[in-house]
């Protein structure tokens, strides 16, 4: 079949769409109510006899040089390949994955985009982690074209109906043809594009041809921080329609509260393809109401007044069935009754203030890019619920509609964001400007289209509590126009962080990315220098950048969020790492695919790894978002704070377990967002775990486990120290006149021949940089401490003692370390004292490292039972842990410092026969056990590089906190250590 292909519209700024149908609510019609009720939510899209899913294997032809695309395409003469729809062609052997953050992949010259010519040269003010102008000259880069083809059949019976085809997501644009004729054009990658195929259909085989461009004019509005993928990446649906089919459904709920009684009014709008009768039924939770009317101009509006209903919230996601029935079909929608409004500085849901425990969510998988299966979408929603996350910001586009349906059902608030980001405008031209396109009125229609499509598709969902105008596009007239459109159609608040970079500063809620805790406090207290942040609710739309190890310091934000009514919560950046999965299980990130520009592993910034295995960051977030917070206030008294908005405290059971064996279990009826003091004494005795000898527990704590009474699900576990660690007794430290047999002390330190020796770098003043130890412009301050020159100043030997004095010389610092080794009854007492002779600033770490053979693989310790650092430790509790060396580090996509354990009283390593133990003396130490050295770790780029070369044991007086410096505030002062202070590290080494 032959097609005359259009080669103009995708690059014509005057063309936004051709024959695309108006936006409407997403739903799947069924022949009748029984059929609509019979299909589970995740199968609803695929189970209707009125809707055919065209997803599957399609023919595909890739044109790496767009000039090779013929003006007239003969599909019978094309050498087709095959690809999966939905899918991204970069993940199916065409082109390559390409990750970039805030830059465009083509020269910034709006509205012009490359057509058939090569891309370049490309100017940017930033690139690959550094600031400064540069010009790229890409090679073999073009505006690639992918042509898709599928065949579907229509029987004579089906020809009696018309058909609408729905593309739920195509990047970057869609040029649609059917049976030799052009159907239409649309752009807006994450917005639904629908076309009427009725004039083009025929009995028998029907050929559908889709031309997809790498970039179109609309690509200027899609400069999001993600792999830049292309293709038909969401389902394609073919809907059978008749004149009595439902075209659109809308609902409006109004809440009235009088004398303590709440009633709702539900208005339902129904649009048919032609005039006819519509019957609407509301049913659920013992309520059933029905109304019917004939349409006028294809539309009818019905209302139900005085409804006594269960209200929808993320904590109580009560839903009702809304059936819209006509002569030919039934549409079943799930509706919830909720009101969201701004009251002064408070964000209210159903009249109560809420704190949003949120995360930013991308539609992303390591196997298929933007394409997600229903099971993967459901998995993400369930992961949120299991980790106490009650809010998703759909960064930075509308998600697959199934995610919103799941959020309705499960109870997750959604900040629904338009498919809009022009971040590259900031660095694509001099002078830099956030709002260069947003201030340009010539783009108004495209901005309004993205707001319109966002609202119309998602307007039925009770989970949506705010509309968001997009991301990082500055402010200006086009954003204002989007705001006015949304407020004219919806009573929901409108969010847009980009306004902070304009004179407007904020819309209905104030919002900022990655502010310091001090800035958050100033907003909470109403004294921000930005006045429009002082008179409305404030949301951290992005905070706690979870790149690599981290996020650190998240608890500091939440203490302030709960303390100030204006602080409405925030969304961690972000949910999952973006990476590409390869055969064999390896992951790659920016720069691994031959990209001519990229931003490295900046895409690996999630609290879950790409396969959704939780990282420590997920545990940190789950703990920070716990529904009940407990703190010890003295003696047998504890304070319980209910961090929910709608759930009474007696929905939870609290189990207190003391380290010396006491147990108590109780229920606390504390009201939402209130606190209550409790007297808690053990009501039952457990088994005290004292250990023996040097493995005895020397401190007292209580661990509180909170579970939901209805389900028994554990929602949090937190621990409070009741006493500090007792010093090691005098017996093990009794001095001896000679060192025990089997040990030596030399210039580098203690050696246990054949067992343990100082590492190549025995004295550690820094760590291998984490992602959060660097900043956006590429500074890596911890690396200033790499490769210190070690000078042995002196070795003094006495009876049962050796004193080694070492000087460490660095470019900006100089330290003197005096280490004393003393023979004692239990082994060797090591005491290291560090003094700064020159330099200032922070000291990243003070510790000593030993190397053992790889056969020493068994680890037993008493300390925090997971990765923990100064500003991210409360998610882990002090406990006895037995594991392998490989369990002591974290599988970050880019290897880096990881696996630190705080508050350790001892660690014992074993090869199955022999044992070596390090025991804290006067205070707990921090522990690191790795299967490779820090020197080796510095050169690693991917998980596959983590090859075991030994067992490396590090004992530390301290290690600084993590912070979120990769895209936010660095480590706070209280989690840092001034290098001008003197520090001491002492521990006992014993063996058997």
Automatic annotation (TrEMBL):
GO cellular-component term (any): beta-galactosidase complex
Pfam families given in the database record: Bgal_small_N, Glyco_hydro_2_C, Glyco_hydro_2_N
GO biological process terms on file: lactose catabolic process
InterPro entries in UniProt: B-gal_small/dom_5 (IPR004199), Bact_Beta-galactosidase (IPR050347), Beta-gal/glucu_dom_sf (IPR036156), Gal_mutarotase_sf_dom (IPR011013), Galactose-bd-like_sf (IPR008979), GH (IPR017853), GH-type_carb-bd (IPR014718), Glyco_hydro_2 (IPR006101)
Catalytic activity, reaction form: Hydrolysis of terminal non-reducing beta-D-galactose residues in beta-D-galactosides
Gene Ontology terms for molecular function: beta-galactosidase activity; carbohydrate binding
Hydrolase among keywords: yes
Keywords: Glycosidase, Hydrolase
Beta galactosidase small chain/ domain: residues covered: 727-990
SUPFAM superfamilies, alphabetized: (Trans)glycosidases, beta-Galactosidase/glucuronidase domain, Galactose mutarotase-like, Galactose-binding domain-like
EC number, UniProt record: 3.2.1.23
Stored PANTHER family: BETA-GALACTOSIDASE
Similarity section: Belongs to the glycosyl hydrolase 2 family.
Name by which UniProt lists this protein: beta-galactosidase
Organism per entry: Thermophilibacter provencensis
């Amino acid at each position: 079949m032959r097609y005359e292909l259009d080669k103009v519209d995708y690059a014509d700024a005057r063309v936004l769409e051709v024959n695309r149908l108006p936006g409407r609510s997403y739903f799947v019609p069924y022949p009748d109510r029984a059929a609509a009720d019979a299909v589970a939510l995740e199968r609803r899209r695929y189970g209707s006899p009125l809707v055919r899913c065209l997803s599957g294997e399609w023919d595909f032809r890739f044109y790496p040089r767009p000039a090779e695309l013929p003006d007239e395409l003969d599909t019978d003469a094309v050498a087709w390949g095959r690809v999966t729809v939905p899918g991204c062609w970069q993940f199916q052997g065409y082109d390559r994955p390409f990750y970039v953050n805030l830059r465009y992949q083509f020269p910034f010259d709006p509205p012009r985009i490359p057509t058939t010519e090569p891309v370049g040269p490309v100017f940017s003010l930033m690139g690959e982690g550094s600031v400064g102008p540069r010009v790229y000259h890409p090679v073999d880069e073009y505006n690639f074209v992918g042509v898709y083809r599928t065949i579907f059949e229509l029987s004579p019976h089906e020809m009696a109906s018309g058909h609408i085809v729905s593309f739920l997501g195509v990047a970057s644009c869609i040029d649609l043809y059917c049976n030799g004729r052009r159907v239409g054009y649309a752009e807006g990658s994450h917005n639904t594009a629908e076309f009427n195929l009725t004039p083009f259909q025929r009995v028998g085989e029907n050929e559908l041809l889709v031309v997809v461009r790498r970039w179109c004019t609309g690509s200027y509005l899609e400069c999001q921080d993600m792999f830049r993928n292309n293709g038909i990446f969401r389902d394609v649906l073919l809907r059978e329609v008749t004149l009595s089919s439902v075209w659109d459904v809308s609902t409006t709920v109004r809440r009235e509260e009088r004398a303590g009684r709440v009633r709702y009014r539900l208005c339902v709008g129904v649009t048919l393809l032609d005039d006819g009768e519509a019957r609407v039924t509301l049913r659920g939770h013992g309520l059933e109401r029905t109304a019917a009317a004939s349409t006028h101009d294809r539309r009818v509006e019905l209302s139900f007044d005085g409804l006594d209903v269960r209200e929808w919230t993320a904590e109580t996601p009560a839903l009702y069935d809304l059936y819209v029935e006509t002569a030919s079909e039934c549409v079943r929608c799930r509706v919830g009754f909720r009101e969201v409004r701004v009251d002064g500085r408070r964000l209210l849901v159903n009249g109560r203030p809420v704190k949003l425990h949120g995360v930013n969510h991308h539609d992303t998988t390591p196997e298929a890019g933007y394409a997600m299966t229903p099971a993967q979408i459901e998995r993400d929603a369930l992961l949120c619920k299991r980790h106490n996350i009650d809010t998703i910001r759909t960064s930075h586009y509308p998600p697959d509609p199934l995610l919103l349906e799941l959020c309705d059902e499960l109870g997750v608030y959604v900040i629904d964001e338009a498919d809009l980001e022009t971040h590259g405008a900031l660095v694509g031209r001099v002078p830099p400007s956030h709002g260069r396109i947003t201030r340009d009125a010539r783009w108004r229609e495209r901005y309004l289209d993205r707001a319109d499509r966002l609202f119309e598709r998602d307007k039925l969902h009770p989970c949506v509590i705010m509309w968001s105008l997009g991301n990082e596009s500055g402010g200006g007239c086009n954003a204002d126009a989007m705001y006015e459109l949304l407020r004219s159609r919806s009573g929901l608040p409108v969010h847009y962080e980009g306004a902070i970079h304009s004179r407007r500063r904020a819309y209905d809620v104030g919002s900022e990315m990655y502010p310091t805790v001090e800035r958050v406090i100033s907003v909470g207290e109403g004294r921000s220098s930005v006045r429009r942040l002082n008179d409305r609710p404030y949301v951290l739309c992005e905070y706690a950048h979870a790149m690599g190890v981290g996020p650190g310091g998240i608890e500091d934000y939440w203490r302030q969020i709960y303390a100030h009514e204006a602080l409405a919560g925030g969304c961690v950046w972000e949910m999952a790492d973006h990476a590409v999965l390869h055969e064999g299980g390896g992951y790659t990130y920016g720069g691994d695919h031959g990209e001519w520009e990229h931003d490295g592993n900046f895409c690996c910034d999630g609290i879950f790894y790409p396969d959704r295995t939780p990282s420590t960051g997920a545990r940190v977030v789950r703990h920070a978002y716990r529904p009940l917070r407990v703190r010890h206030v003295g003696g047998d008294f504890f304070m319980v704070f209910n961090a929910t908005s709608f759930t009474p405290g007696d929905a939870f059971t609290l189990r207190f377990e003391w380290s010396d064996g006491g147990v108590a279990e109780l229920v606390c009826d504390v009201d939402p967002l209130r606190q209550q003091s409790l007297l808690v004494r053990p009501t039952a005795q457990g088994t005290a775990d004292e250990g023996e000898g040097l493995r005895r527990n020397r401190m007292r704590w209580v661990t509180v486990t909170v579970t939901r009474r209805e389900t028994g699900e554990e929602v949090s576990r937190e621990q409070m120290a009741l006493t500090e660690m007792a010093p090691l007794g005098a017996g093990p430290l009794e001095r001896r006149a000679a060192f025990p047999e089997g040990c030596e002390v030399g210039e580098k330190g203690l050696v246990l021949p054949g067992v343990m020796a100082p590492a190549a770098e025995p004295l550690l003043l820094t760590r291998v940089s984490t992602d959060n130890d660097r900043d956006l412009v590429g500074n890596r301050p911890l690396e200033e401490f790499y490769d210190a020159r070690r000078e042995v100043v002196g070795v003094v030997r006495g009876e049962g003692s050796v004193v080694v004095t070492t000087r460490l010389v660095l470019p900006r610092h100089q330290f003197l370390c005096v280490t004393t080794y003393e023979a004692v009854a239990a082994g060797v007492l090591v005491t290291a004292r560090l003094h700064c002779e020159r330099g200032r600033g922070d000291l990243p770490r003070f510790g000593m490292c030993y190397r053992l053979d790889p056969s020493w693989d068994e680890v037993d310790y008493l300390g925090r039972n997971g990765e923990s650092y100064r500003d991210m430790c409360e998610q882990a509790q002090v406990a006895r842990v037995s594991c392998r060396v490989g369990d002591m580090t974290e599988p970050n996509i880019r290897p880096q410092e990881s696996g630190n354990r705080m508050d350790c009283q001892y660690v014992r390593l074993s090869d199955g026969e022999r044992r070596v133990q390090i025991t804290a003396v006067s205070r707990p130490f921090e522990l690191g056990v790795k299967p490779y050295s820090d020197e080796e770790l510095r050169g690693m780029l991917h998980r596959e590089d983590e090859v075991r070369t030994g067992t490396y044991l590090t004992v530390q007086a301290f290690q600084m906190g993590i912070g979120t410096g990769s895209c936010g505030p660095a480590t706070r002062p209280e989690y840092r250590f001034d290098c001008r202070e003197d520090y001491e590290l002492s521990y006992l080494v014993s063996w058997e």
